[in-house]
Backbone:
């Protein structure tokens, strides 16, 4: 007479299959998790380096060898570094707490306020340019003795707000670096491989901020212009 199979044999089989699949899944996820953490470490290193650099620049307050020209409206030549700070935001991705972005802000100041006297009919176009540049300003009109508006007057504070934002794409394993008002009244976005935003690149960034070199702009292609895309990683979000 045949004996019944052991009551544990089916569970043992299921347990073995489950363990094997779980182990293979963990092995497949491990390189992805390591890639995510490597990008996060690179961003933290950049954050700490820039945070210290901004602190020193805030003490030294050097003159910046740039000419900021807003068309034919105004020019601010060799403004002075005033102050700066850097922030970050985190998010949960792939089961880990990772940096969502880091962002640096700093201000440059010109030597004296700027007064612009314009035809009132052209004031709106000038106001749009000033608003886009982030320069603080105040506008008022001047009237003659008959209360007829003769001209518009802009009082512009020569305070340039500049910024640099690093936005990682953990799936494509790239860093989008967006500069605004760093060397001109303009924004530009570059696309870095994570390991290329290293200390030499950050040194070039500060040199660009100070007007000593434009090498940083040649370190990476414009975002979306290089035609290269890494394979997208499958990320488990929570």
Residues:
């Amino acid at each position: 007479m045949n004996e019944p199979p052991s009551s544990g044999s089916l569970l043992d089989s299921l347990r073995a299959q489950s363990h094997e699949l779980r182990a293979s899944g963990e092995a497949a996820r491990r390189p992805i998790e390591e890639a995510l953490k490597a990008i996060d470490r690179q961003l933290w290193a950049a954050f700490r380096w820039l945070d210290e650099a901004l602190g020193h620049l805030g003490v030294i307050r050097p003159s910046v060898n740039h000419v900021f020209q807003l068309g034919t409206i105004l020019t601010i030549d060799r403004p002075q570094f005033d102050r700066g700070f850097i922030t970050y935001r985190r998010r949960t991705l792939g089961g880990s707490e990772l940096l969502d972005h880091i962002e640096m802000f700093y201000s440059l100041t010109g030597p004296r306020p700027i007064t612009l006297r314009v035809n009132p009919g052209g004031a709106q176009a000038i106001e749009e340019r000033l608003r886009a540049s982030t320069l603080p300003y105040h506008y008022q009109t001047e009237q003659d003795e008959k209360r007829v508006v003769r001209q518009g007057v802009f009082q512009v504070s020569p305070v340039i707000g500049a910024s640099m934002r690093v936005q990682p794409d953990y799936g494509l394993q790239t860093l989008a670096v967006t500069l605004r008002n760093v060397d001109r009244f303009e924004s530009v976005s570059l696309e870095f491989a994570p390991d290329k935003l290293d200390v030499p690149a950050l040194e070039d960034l500060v040199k660009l901020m100070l007007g000593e070199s434009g090498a940083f702009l040649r370190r990476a292609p414009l975002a979306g212009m290089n035609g290269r895309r890494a394979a997208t990683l499958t990320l488990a979000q929570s």
Summary: The chain has three helices and ten strands. The longest strand covers residues 80-93.
